[in-house]
Elongation of very long chain fatty acids protein
Amino acid sequence: MDPYNSMFNFSSQVENKTSPFLPVMRINSDGFIDYSEFALDNPPKYEPFEFERVDWKRWVMWTHRHWDVPIYAGVIYIAVIFGIQAVMKNRHGLELKRELFLWNAALGIFSMLGFIRMMPEFLGVLTSHPNGFYRSVCIWQGGNMPTAFWGLLFTWSKFVELGDTVFIVLRKRPLQLLQWYHHLATLSVCWLTLPYVEPISRYYCVMNYGVHSLMYPYFALRALDVKIPRWFANIITTLQLGQMVIGLGVNTYSGLKFHLGGSESCFRHPASVKMFFVVYGSFAVLFGELFWKLVIKSKREQSRRSHNILDNLTSRKMD
């Protein structure tokens, strides 16, 4: 058995033999997952474009066999950003306004396309049955090629998003823990859990695509010094925190379902439940702190300044 299976105990996945909705996750003779029982809807409910027709099982298997890619990527990433930060210590920060605009605009367009292509399937599963929420989290059905394609791109895009931090250090902006930790943690958890092909992953993909559809265009406009109302930035920060809270919630819900009823009750793997709990739990704390500083505390300070201005005006009138 390969180190990935040993590390994350793949063989502990209970084989489901009774539920018609849950394929069996078996380990083949090579020690890797056998995806022969995993099939997309036929005929497809959501017709793919020609470029979306990919051998998704092959790519998922490749990810499974190369489980250690995030380790190498993480080492290079940390070395690069802190190396650049050291080099830039006694230099002037680069402007990079045009480059930053193009970078954020491209990621914004990509996120919009991913959201548009994955949202119909997500809503379809969520609303087509009285137990839609449970089915959307725990039942492996309704798979379609657009979701498979954009789900794969979602994982690979996390490598590209590491470039966000490179812009920060090149421009000599303050580098915070949240900025580099969440990129590295997201890449790792997406890569390591992709082979499980769990229904709950649709939540993480759709929510992240949706938030980034607003966040990256906002950053693109800010790179051009376009003035945007403060409340719009607060909305993005609120959505980011909401994404983490919902992610933590659906993971806890499905984890309990799995713990109480096994894989026949909810198509999860215990390693995935643990990884998402750690990652989204830490994200909820870090983004909660950001929300407090940028939204709650900022509003209080703004309200205090407004009261001071009003008091000064009132005192002048009385004089």
Observations:
- The longest helix spans residues 270-318.
- The two ends are 85 Å apart (CA to CA).
- The beta strands are 26-27, 33-34.
